Amino acid sequence: MSTAALPADFLRAIAESFPADFLTREPAELQEYGRDWTRVYAPAPGAVVFPRTTEEVARFVALCHQHRVALVPSGGRTGLAGGAVAMHGEVVLSLKRMTRMEPVDLLGNTVRVQAGAVTEGVHQHCAPHGLTWPVDFASKGSSTVGGNIATNAGGVKVIRYGLTRQWVLGLQVVTAQGQVLELNGALEKNNTGADLRQLFIGSEGTLGVITEATLKLTRLPGKQDVFLFAVPDVAAVLRLFRDARQAPLVLSAYEFFTDKCLARVQRHRKLRSPFEASSGCYVLLESEGGDPAAVEAWLGSLFERGLVTDGTQAQGVAQAQELWSLRESISESLSATGVLHKNDISLPVANLEAFCAELDAIFASRYPGWEICLFGHIGDGNLHVNVMKPDAVEKADFFAHAKQSDHAMFDLVRKHGGSISAEHGIGLLKKDYLDYTRAPGEMELLRTLKRALDPAGILNPGKILDA
Question: Residue limits of the FAD-binding PCMH-type domain (predicted)?
Fold first, then answer.
């Protein structure tokens, strides 16, 4: 595997066998396509290629295998773990031109798309038929299907619909040797041994390159109600969630964020809070259906029982979008208004309350006086922990201290049976901590899979596991 200058005969073969616009080495393009949203690592790819078909991907990957040239598969580059970063001369394999979406199969409720199709574009493609691919998150306007699948993306509707892997029927994958695999097609049932498509879902491009997928669709939801509640603290967020689980409605999202997150959003996006008084935490709840009278009675009881201190219900689509903007603008606003250290952790929902209580003690001892911005998908046990750099602390010192302090948090995550990465993956950022979540036997099995499927180590090297 080469991390130095690209071999001359490799570049000659590309020039002879692929279209003239297939490869670029323009410095601006290398910077753009060599990184993802983490902005932690300096990109240094050797080149970027833009295939249009699976056949071109397969020929290119075979060429990389022949010349031992490392490659980094790249989609919308919205990841937050460094999984799409090329920093050692690798060739970035961008799937941005592979955006074809086939007609929706109205009998099977499926659609086949290329890996570069944008998530929101798939939603728009299916909506006229009353169908949707229910994978949804703030980055849906730029994230791509291939990246969603490669990272088993989560998002804001997991409490209702589950993770990406539950909405993928079939995959087309190019192996490290350039072989094209068709895995499961459009079959709902296929009981013929190990489900190979699941090896590639969530593997972050380290085992193969996903080029097409057959997606499972569901009916568009009916009337959705969106509420924003003010509560004093994280414990109150969890008390309200416990109550909402028993309420006469179907939860499709249960999101929370702290007052510090809201302040950053208001500073960056100039969005207005619907409440006159500030509060420690806010809960965005989206629901489907339910008897209107029963829901109204439940809402009234929240104030009577002291579960919320304030609340509002969106009156129409525009107001619902405004409330969602408060939540979905957080990641962008945190990055735009400061330097931060991110963590994306998950716990069994039943353990959240005990975990959060102990987490406060860690913040007090490890980050005294630092600004902590918490938000997340409480409904599926996912917390996003963001530590903002104090103005008086040098950037290098900040990251060194924050990373060292992660061990205390991950010890607590392990104690409560959680995961160090809920939905952002491992990439470069989390691989040193993977053993907090994975047992030694699991780690060895992951290495065995990598060696078996990518013996030359050319696929997204250095991500998840070191060689």
Answer: 41-220
Query: How many degrees, rounded to 5, is the angle at CA 419 between CA 437 and CA 137?
Result: 145
Distance CA 236, CA 257 (A): 12
Tell me the CA end-to-end span of the chain in Å, nearest whole number.
Answer: 11
Per-residue CA distances from 109 to 105, 112, 213, 215, 286 (Å): 5, 11, 14, 9, 25
User: How far is residue 131 CA from its own chain's centroid?
Assistant: 23
**Length in residues, the chain:** 467
DSSP H or E stretch at residue 76: none
The fold of 110-219 is: 3.30.465
Judge whether 143 and 118 are in contact, CB under 8 Å.
yes
Report which residue type is found at 265.
V
Residue pair 279/230 in contact (Cβ under 8 Å)? The answer is yes
pLDDT one-digit tens code per residue, 14-60: 999 999 999 999 999 999 999 998 878 899 999 999 999 999 999 99
d(CA 252, CA 224): 9
Whether 265 and 282 have beta carbons less than 8 Å apart is answered as: no
Q: How many CB atoms lie within 10 A of CB 40?
A: 17
Q: Which H or E run contains 246?
A: none
Q: CA angle at residue 52 from 110 to 47, to 5 degrees?
A: 130
The residues near 113 (Cβ < 8 Å, ≥ 6 apart) are: 100, 101, 102, 122, 125, 145, 212, 213, 215
The values of phi and psi at residue 23, to 5°, are: -120, 140
How far is it, in rounded angstroms, from Cα 217 to Cα 220? 9
Distance CA 321, CA 427 (A): 32
Question: Residue 29: left (phi > 0), alpha (psi -120 to 50), or beta?
Answer: alpha
Contact, 326 vs 265, CB < 8 A?
yes
Q: Work out the mean pLDDT of the chain and round it to a whole number.
A: 94
Residue indicated by tokens 């929101």: 120
| pLDDT, tens only, 244-280 | 999 999 999 999 999 999 999 999 999 999 999 999 9
Residue type, 85: V
Which of helix, strand or coil describes residue 103? coil
Question: Which tokens in the block code for residue 23?
Answer: 């490869």
What is the amino acid identity at position 64? C
Topology at the third CATH level for domain 8-97: 3.30.43
Which class is domain 224-416? alpha beta
Measured CA to CA, the distance from residue 376 to residue 422 in angstroms comes to 10
**pLDDT of residue 83 exceeding 50:** yes
Tell which residue, 374, 376, 373, 380, has the closest CA to residue 347: 380
